[in-house]
């Protein structure tokens, strides 16, 4: 299992369109990928779960990946969130 803290930089946060992009990205990986904000954990392969975290600009989220391609999956998610500026 690997994990990394990320700050949401997108000025509109992780709303429906970027959340959908994230879900489509993580579905490419076999690992179980979770987003954790405060005491809430969301399955990153579910758009409903991701949206319930209410990730606004400046929100801190822990990205956790567990599985055979966890390192690659973690880096892909961290990069996606860091470069998201729509």
Summarize the entry for a quick read.
With about 90 residues, this protein is of the alpha+beta class.
What keywords describe this structure?
27% strand; Histidine-containing Protein, Chain: A; alpha+beta; 86 residues; 4-stranded antiparallel β-sheet
Biggest β-sheet: count, sense, barrel? 4 strands, antiparallel
Shape: globular
Strand content: 25-35%
Task: Tell me the CATH topology.
Answer: Histidine-containing Protein, Chain: A
Give me the number of helical elements.
Answer: 3
Rg, Å, rounded: 11 Å
The CA-CA distance between the termini, in Å, is 30 Å
CATH top-level class? Alpha Beta
As laid out across the biggest beta sheet, the strand order is 1-4-2-3
Mean pLDDT: 96
Percent helix, as a range, is 25-40%
Low-confidence stretches: none
CATH architecture: 2-Layer Sandwich
Looking at CATH, the homologous superfamily is HPr-like
Structural class: alpha+beta
InterPro entries: HPr (IPR050399), HPr-like (IPR000032), HPr-like_sf (IPR035895), PTS_HPr_His_P_site (IPR001020)
Organism: Enterocloster bolteae 90A9
Domain HPr: 1-86
Protein name: Phosphocarrier protein HPr
Describe the fold and architecture:
- There is one protein chain.
- With 86 residues, this protein is α+β, with helices and mostly antiparallel strands.
- It has one domain: Histidine-containing Protein, Chain: A.
- Helices cover 36% and strands 27% of the residues.
- The chain is built from three helices and four strands.
- It has a four-stranded antiparallel beta sheet.
- The longest helix is centred in the C-terminal third of the chain and has 14 residues.
- The termini are far apart.
- The model has no long low-confidence stretch (mean pLDDT 96).
- InterPro entries: HPr, HPr-like, HPr-like_sf, PTS_HPr_His_P_site.
- It comes from Enterocloster bolteae 90A9.
- This is Phosphocarrier protein HPr.
